[in-house]
Amino acid sequence: MKNAKVSSGSVEDFFRRSRERAAKLDRKERLPIDLRITFEDPADLMRALSAQRVKVLQVVKRNRRPTVTKLATMLKRDRKSVTRDVTVLEKLGLIRTKIQANPGHGVVKVVEPLAERYHLTATL
Q1: pTM of this prediction?
Q2: For the segment 61-76, what is each residue's pLDDT rounded down to a tens digit?
Q3: Rg of the chain's alpha carbons, rounded to an integer?
Q4: Pairing of β 117-121 and β 107-113
Q5: Fold topology of 3-121
Q6: Where are the alpha helices (DSSP H) in the chain?
Q7: Number of neighbours of residue 61 by Cβ within 10 angstroms
Q8: How far apart are alpha carbons 85 and 62 in whole angstroms?
Q9: Where are the domains of the chain?
Q10: Residue 124 scores a pLDDT above 80
Q11: Do 94 and 57 touch, CB atoms closer than 8 A?
């Protein structure tokens, strides 16, 4: 996926975008493979994407497949807190995790971005 767009917007915006996409499909145009998550209330957006979670996204984008433990070290945060943030971002569909063998040490959870770019917009 190329872009992930997370923003605030109204129900009317959602239906306008849906009509535009339907018109493109009717014209047999290809739709971009993008992810769009819209929160009606900007406060909900800010809760879901706290400053710490945005930092997690930034580090995941800059580093090739970091483990949760490595993320915690790079962010200078508790591993449990980073795990919680990774879980929220994964549920939103912005990242994915994979369990990977760590020879001689069991397994590790690797974090991968799902988009090349993330666009975050809050409009009041």
Answers
A1: 0.83
A2: 999 889 999 999 999 9
A3: 17
A4: unpaired
A5: Arc Repressor Mutant, subunit A (1.10.10)
A6: 11-26, 42-48, 51-62, 68-75, 79-92
A7: 14
A8: 17
A9: 3-121
A10: no
A11: yes
